[in-house]
Amino acid sequence: MTARHPDDAPVIGLDLGGTKIAAALVAAGGAVLARHSLPTPATAGAEAVLDALADAARAVWAPGVTAIGVAAAGVIDPGTGTVTSATDTIRGWVGTALAAGLAARAGLPVACDNDVRAAAATELPGPHGDGPGITMIYAAVGTGVGGAVAVDGRMLHGAAGIAGHLGHLPSPEAGRLPCTCGATGHLEAIAAGPAITAHYTRMSGTPADRLETVAARAAGGEPHATAAIVLGAEAAGRALGGLANTLGADRVVVGGGVPRIGALYLDALHTAFTAELMPPLRKLRPVPPRGGPDAAVLGAAALTRTLPLHHPASTTGAPR
Question: What is the pTM of this model?
Answer without folding.
Answer: 0.86
